[in-house]
Amino acid sequence: MKTMAGKRSAPKAARTGNRAIGGGGGMWSQSNTKSWSSPAAPPAPKPVDKVVFEVGELVMSDAASDIMPRVVYRIAKRVKSHSWNSQYEYDLVAALDPMGNDKPQRETGVNPSTLRRITIVDLGSARLKLDNFIKEEVKRLQGEA
Amino acid sequence: MTWVPDPLDLNVGDYVIYFGKAPMKDQPYSQQTIENEDLLTRRIIYQITDKAETGATSMSKWRFKLRVAFDPLDPGEHAKEVTYMGSRNLKKMSLLAFGMVRMQYDAFIRQVAQEMGQDA
After folding, report:
1. Average pLDDT in chain A
2. DSSP string, A105-137
3. Among A1, A9, A19, B78, which is disulfide-ready with A63 (CB 3.0 to 4.6 Å)?
4. Which member of A100, A120, A133 has the closest CB to residue B109?
């Protein structure tokens, strides 16, 4: 590229440092003013959350989440999310942590995609499962004795 | 807090809970046997299915094979069997501990039922 003054001049916008040459998919207009027009892409709309939780509802995280799995949390607060992939984010407080310690656990800014609603039926089912597990274990121990 | 039980106290057939760090974010879970602490899921009960000496002199002297014995609600995918080196962050669960867990479930279900205006 020739850089000698007068031989070849950069476009006005580039000379003034206002815009990058050729970037962003825009185009130079054919007019004498050589103005730059950019096809300003509209911002992508945020997706609608599949599930919207209410304050007070019981939830649990899935295994791959950052928050503690198998702990039942209560929704403490719902706030508008600044992230690109969810409408809301949630503050949670631990409601049941049967296999952990008793320290209260709070989680803030949790993405709803990692949460699952828990009903009293789910809890009853878990309780039944645990009951059966204990019975089997007692049988096993009695068999060993 | 790092839980380090004596590996000699952990034997085949024992139940343990893992209290260590969270799995790495976005790491895929596998159904395969793996030797990776990151794939252990917290708050579920594993049973020791195999215990072997590795010959190493450090904490990883013992290698445990763990299978998922009890997962209260099973909401997500996780490794069904894990090979874990050492005993760090494993807590042995006794029958009494299971009884305590059941009591906590009972109390919580009663509380939720009352909040919903139902008798448990």
Report:
1. 75
2. -EEEEE-GGGEEE--HHHHHHHHHHHHHHHHHH
3. B78
4. A120
Contacts of A100 in chain B (CB under 8 A): 19, 42-43
* Average pLDDT of the segment spanning A30-59: 75
Q: How many CB atoms lie within 10 A of CB B78?
A: 21
Phi then psi for A110, rounded to 5 degrees? -85, 135
Element of type H or E holding B63: strand B62-70
Per-residue confidence band for B53, with pLDDT thresholds at 50, 70 and 90: confident
Contact residues, chain B, for A64 at CB < 8 Å? 23, 25-27, 29, 76-77
What is the SS3 assignment for B100? helix
CA distance A88 to A81: 4
The answer to whether the beta carbons of residues A134 and B119 sit under 8 Å apart is no
pTM of the model: 0.70
CA A71 distance to own-chain centroid: 19
Q: How many CB atoms lie within 10 A of CB A48?
A: 8
What Å distances lie between residue A142 and A135, A145, B100, CA to CA?
10, 5, 20
- Please write the tens of the pLDDT for every residue from B92-101: 998 898 999 9
pLDDT at B55: 73
Q: Which of B73, B77, B112 is opposite residue A126, by nearest beta carbon?
A: B73
